[in-house]
Amino acid sequence: MRDYGYSEEGHQGSLSDFGLWKRVLRFSAPYKAGLIAAVFISFIITASTLTLPHLVQTAIDSYITVEHLERALRMAGLSHIALQYGLLVVAVFFATFIQILILEWVGQSVMHTVRQRLFTTILNLDLTFFNSNPTGRLVTRLTNDIQNMNEMFTSVIVTLFNDLLRLAGILLLLFYMNPRLAGVMTLFMPVALVITIIFAKFARERFREIRTKLAKINSYLSETLAGISILQIFNRQAECKETFESLTGEYLQKTLKQIKLFGTFMPLTEFLSSAAVALILWYGGGEILQKRLTLGELVAFISYMRLFFQPLRELSQKYSVVQSAMASAERIFQLLDKKSAIQETPLATELHNPEGRLDFQNIHFSYTPDSQILSDVSFSLEPGQTVALVGTTGSGKTTLVNLLLRFYEPQHGNILIDGHNIKDLSLKNLRQVVGVILQDVFLLQDTLLANIVMETGCNRQKVEEILKQTGIDRFTNKLPQGLDTLIGEGGMTLSTGEKQLLAFARVLCRDPAILILDEATAAIDTESENILETAIADSFKNRTSLVIAHRLSTIRRANHIVVMRQGKIVESGTHDELLAQNGHYALLVAMDLENDQSTNDVTAPAVETLR
Ligand SMILES: Nc1ncnc2c1ncn2[C@@H]1O[C@H](COP(=O)(O)OP(=O)(O)OP(=O)(O)O)[C@@H](O)[C@H]1O
Ligand SMILES: [Mg+2]
User: Fold this and answer.
1) Hey, what domains does the chain have and what are their CATH numbers?
2) What confidence tens digit (pLDDT) does each residue in 7-16 have?
């Protein structure tokens, strides 16, 4: 089965990567006060928790087991201690509550910033990046990874500190109280340590496996759902079910393995802690008999031991959480550091009211190093001229448009607008000067008007004017709520032809000097076709237009035709000239007429024969 490129998800973060810690902390710099407060509260919590066994000890030794004091005095002392105990417990409760609030606030705020930055970075990356990074993976970065990184704040930075503080505090106290007894207890320390380390190692491995499996499930799911209609057409439900079954089966296996591991480790630490208590009970009891230890001291000692084993058990679990948080942080930072391969020059020029001259000069281009897509493509469009680009499917027509819009950079050659290299224009300006109508029309889930206006801020009146002028209003007037009709999910679904009409209105709203039209290959219903004809004719007027044409009617309208084949220009001229040459173009036209006269699609049917 395919790996879905998710081996990366198994990547381990290193705890000792100080650069990473520094960066995480830099993000939390605005919340420094909060973090310092949280650390301070840690001291309060630890001190209070560690005082509790001491209070029990005082209660036993000073009031319960002493015979010579008056009963009333003993009761008063006990009440006093009980009150102190109660107050401390309440203090711990509130301190913990406030600490959690602070940590969640810091964590969530930092994640908010990171999420925002990450999204902005992704928005501006070049298309080559998206070709090699599936959507599923990027979604994981913005959701799971951010969530994991949040753990850095809640579980790691302070809780870990809490635990270590407590462990150190208890050890000190125990040795201070009774060094011999503490010495006996430390016999257990190496065993506990070894078990913890072994567990952490296995847990890390299990954890990594589970995460990789989950990433695969997510990616398979998004892929399946995106292509659901194709799956249903080809009746692939059964295969999909099987693949999913095997993916989730593996996930289940790994999860069960992890549960088994935890199931062994948890009782083991419990066993160890109880065995230590038994030993201390035996040894400490002997000490009491020899009057070298008081009962209160023994009880306190046992309480401290219990408190000692608890964080030890949690530490090993937290270790894997830290690991995954570090790995997530590392992946997030890697993505944050990505720079788009397409950069604007620092002193970008802006073209205002361009004439619309367009030159392609010796363009060589390949998406990947091993396949040449365009070789030495050169041609020019005079201001106001309409040029049709014709060629079999895959000959590189859309690629040329991608280069013009600077979605990719040619390896060799230049594209000029009014004599300016497009590399010297700001991307914003370039994409204002060049208006494009692509084969796939992207729709917002909004009203038709919003879909046409988008970022331009064009008012309704202007839009209506454009629609009327181009005849597209014949389509919009028929819609139930006209321009206010909702499009997309939950609203109206548009046909290919209708989408093209919308795209025309959209691009004319921007009134670009250069218009690029990548005609839809799918056959368009006759009604839209008629409206489209007028819209096309009107849009080409007074504008430099480059049309990747599939329909004879559009091609005929062009002043000049450029014929492409396998990434090269093979012929150019007017319709009549090219027909007279009786070359590739004549063949394309002839085959189209032979195949299907009604669709007028010159390129698509010719694919089989010409490839
Ligand atoms: N993002 C990409 N990464 C790698 N190769 C690509 C990419 N996009 C297109 N190609 C390849 O580049 C070649 C030219 O594709 P292009 O989309 O330019 O063809 P086209 O002439 O527009 O075809 P059509 O008439 O079907 O739209 C094809 O062989 C295609 O496989
Ligand atoms: Mg194309």
Assistant:
1) 16-335 (1.20.1560.10), 358-610 (3.40.50.300)
2) 455 555 566 6
